[in-house]
Amino acid sequence: MGLVVQKYGGSSVADAEGIKRVAKRVVEAKKNGHQVVVVVSAMGDTTDELIDLAGEVSPITSGREFDMLLTAGERISMALLAMAIKSLGHEAQSFTGSQAGVITDSAHSKARIIDVTPGRIRTALEEGNIAIVAGFQGVSQDKKDITTLGRGGSDTTAVALAAALNAEVCEIYTDVDGVFTADPRVVQKARKLDWISFEDMLELASSGSKVLLHRCVEYARRYNIPIHVRSSFSGLPGTWVSNEPQGDQPMEQAIISGVAHDTSQAKITVVGVPDKPGEAAKIFRLLADAELNIDMVVQNVSAASTGLTDISFTLPKDDGRRAIESLEKAKGSIGFDTLRYDDQIAKISLVGAGMKTNPGVTATFFESLSGAGVNIELISTSEIRISVVTRKDDVNEAVQAVHTAFGLDSESDEAVVYGGTGR
Prior knowledge:
The protein is an alpha/beta fold.
């Protein structure tokens, strides 16, 4: 048997009973002959509670000390899980991200992994131990400071360790039974997928699907690490995410993989931009220099009488204030009239391989939204995705309408979210 990396989210280790349940599953894998490395998130809402506590103490909630604070949650989880495993008669050793050799850049709160040197993990495995690693964290290459990878970073930690250790699979345990055709909290008849390609999973993740982090899937695709998404609350088979189907799964993929939605974005419209070469470049260079990630972009046709146009784009709500401040400072050099900010929007995305070569997909998508009375504000497409921006209040009806229109509704039991978070 080979090496397996298992990752357990916050809902899986939310309390003592959850930790003991995870310990039994880990020990079972060990008894089956596997070498086991476990990556854990903080217990339940611990990270949110630490963020709130930091806000009460100081208005400056970022940087080195903030990362030092947030990594405490995962260290608590790893130590408790090691104790639970030892109580079952098996040896376990816990490691922080830095002890596990997770080396990152110096961007606090959103560090990226540069390298993984898991020497201590290999030693622990060779000695017959189960290795437990605190997710979401690493150590900066230059200053040796503790860093965090951003929310959901434990998924990325798990895949990075799986790649460095040449693991057979990275198992991501969460509170749903796998990857579904839509968020089961919104669409109760969402259907679990047995397999999904890296490309489609990347699109779903970047479009708002919460079950896997985009960076985690991107890392897995780069190093060809199969991911098995499963629930820690049940023994059911999950969803395989890989280049090719696993086992007896069919080779031919369905046209539509699923519907994702995202309510964490805002829309900014730059009104009255001179319609001439270089103006859009100024706007997006300014945003890039402020380290802001832009999603959808639409430029209107300019008015012939004024020679002015409007440019709209979406970005995470948390970055909205910085974007507005950066643009306002450059108003004189760019020459626009006003800015409009709207954070009551939602993005709905239809994802699937072969959409471009199958007539009728686009028509069905827009007809379903029209039938649900949903108005569209922005549209963006790729070969395997159609995304639109609508009002936030319309998101549930829109997702359900699109899901039904493409025959994705399950005829069996309703999807279950065991922990209530979808992660």
